[in-house]
Structure formats: C-alpha cells, structure tokens
Amino acid sequence: MDRPWTVERRLREAAPHEIFDVIRSTIERRHEVLAVRLMMADYSSTRLQTVGEPSATRTLVSVYDTAPGRAYGAQEPHWVHDASAAAVEVHLPVSVRGDRLGILSVTLPDPEGEGPPPELLAELQECADALGHEVLVADRDTDLFLRARRAERLTLAAEMQWQLLPGRSCSRPEYTLGAQLEPAYAVFGDSFDWSASADELHLTVNNGMGEGIDAALLTNLAVSALRNGRRAGLELSDQAYLADQAVFGQHRGEQYLAALLLRFHLPTGEVEIIDAGSPRIWRLRDGAVEMIELEAQMPLGMFEDTVYEPQRLTVAPGDRLLFISDGVYDALSPAGEKYSLRALARSINDTRLLPATQVPRAILEALLGHRGPGPAADDALVMCLDWNGR
Predict the structure, then answer these.
(1) Residues whose CB is less than 8 angstroms from the CB of residue 244 and which lie 6 or more positions away in sequence, other chains included
(2) pTM tops 0.85, yes or no
C-alpha cells in the first residue's frame, strides 16, 4: 500500500466527486480485490446507502442487524467470510474525529477462510480515515455524498436545519458527543451546535417555535447570532443577549426560541449554563438518573433587553449528560398519553451501556414506540455527552 501521505496527496489533487474513485484505484492497485464500495449513513442514522448507485435502485443496509452496521456502531473494522464465494468482506468505519460518516467495504479473495491479516486491516483503515477527511471537504463542492445520505426526500426546512449542524457526533479525550433529530427528513425547529478550543467546549440546544420554513428561519437566525457572539469572544451571557436582540429585532416578540447555552471548562469540568427555555438536562451518575433543575429564564427574542445570568455546576469523570427537547417528553401516544418523565428516565437508564454516539438514536426509537405510526406533532432532539475529564 502507498504510504498514508501519498494517498492523502492523491485525494487532495482529485476533483471532489472523484475522491472515492482514487481510494478504490489505490486499493485495487495494491491488492487483488473483488469489489470496493462506500456507504454513507442516512439522516436518520438507521441505514447505510451506497455512493454512486441510482436512488431508485439503491440498496438500503440496516445499521442494526448487518455486518456493515456492526462496524458502523462499534466504530471498529469487522469482516465476514463468505464460504460460497471463497471471499471475505471487510467493513471499515469512515469517521472524522468521532463523527460517523459511513462504511468503506472491501471484498477480497479468501479461499482458506483465514480472514484479512492485521497489517492489511491497518492499511485499509488508513484509507478509510483519509477518505473521511476528504468527504467532509468535498461536501462544499459536490452533492455526491450528501445525496447518498438521503433515503427519501428532505423537506426544505429539514434541508436548512441539517446544513446548519456541526455534525452528529464528535470526540476528544475529555468527552464524547452524539446527537440526533427526528423526524430526520422533516425536522423544522430543533437544532444543536458545538465548538471546542484548547480549554473550552461550547454547546447549544435550540427549540424554535412554529413549523416548517418559519421555524427553520428562526433557528438559523438565532444560531447564527450565537455563533457570531461566540466567535467574537463574548461571555456566555453576552452571547445570549446578542441572539435575544437579533430575534426580537426581527420578530418583535411574536416568535422566539427556547435554548440551552453551556460552556464547559475542560481542565476542571466546571460548566456555565443559561437556561433560556424548554430543553432540559438529565444526568446519569453512578447509575442514578436525575433531571438537573435550573433557573428558567426567558426564551431568546421573547422580550426586549432581557438580561441573562449564567448558573454553574460541575461535571465529574464518568458523568453522562443528556439534553432533550420538549418534542420528546411532550410526545403523545395514539391514545393521547404524554411520554412521561418516568418513561424517559427509564429509557436513559436502559441505554447506559451504549456509547454516547448511539444513545440519541436508541432513545428516539423508544419514543417512536410510544408515539406510534404517523406524522409527529413536534420534532424531537436528543444530545448525549459522556464526560471523561482530563
């Protein structure tokens, strides 16, 4: 196999829509392969879809009960021997700093059923890692990989919201983050954002009022204002004030946005929080689930010149925090029963052994079981943070 920097140079020199072809030709030149394909995770994080296949005939691979899904969930290479074909199919996670993008699958001859040697797995994983970085860059200039993510058509509001997000997961030694929105193809007001520096992690969880384009536009305005304040180096209270004034100036209190703003100090685990509305925080510590009670302040844009005061808490290594919008705990069953806080606490406890990247999807699946079939009355957001500390 070419040295990693040689592969990376070829990827950088390729046109954005050709980077997978570069990886495929690199693998084919070094090894006798039967097939190489790239599958992207769809917006609901439940299916993998092959890049380059026509949407009408595209094969949908479940992330739950398939070999590629096992590699995607565990974020580790997984291989399966096919005795009838005398071949082995190797599935490798394509991820960037914890953000799970998809799976690179390579089929090789394996008449003896011995599986791939460790050095080959390492070489193929290097290709998958290099491909992941280039896919993120290529998304600015081509729709090839974004189109492969959609199992159905997005609403315009959902298109706006997904383009606003930083990713669906990320990790650093101090923490691991995962988040998911539902209904994935028709979300309109819920959103999240994060950004990290050497010693700080900023998180926001947003729940804009309204439906469709109006809700998406409101959330875009608020998130852009919050980012503007954060990137200007403003304190958390000033970031909230700036977003509050931006939303109020545009809508004069007729529309507003509920939000949680958090700033983590990575060396100590100290957290500043502004609770400006309905999203709630739950904590799983030493096996006990509890909702963190905060002083509720006014949603962003409800009134003019609102003053926001941060509250403080400290997270400890091993803590799991969950940030959940009202679309989860206010969801109704077909019989009109609300998804209770007790049911939510049970769901949090049931998923305690899952990694943070898989928890939001699992909790939302439990919610769908309660809500039943049919369109959702409100969109729902779950974000999970596992805190390791320094």
Answers:
(1) 276, 298, 300, 301, 306, 308
(2) yes
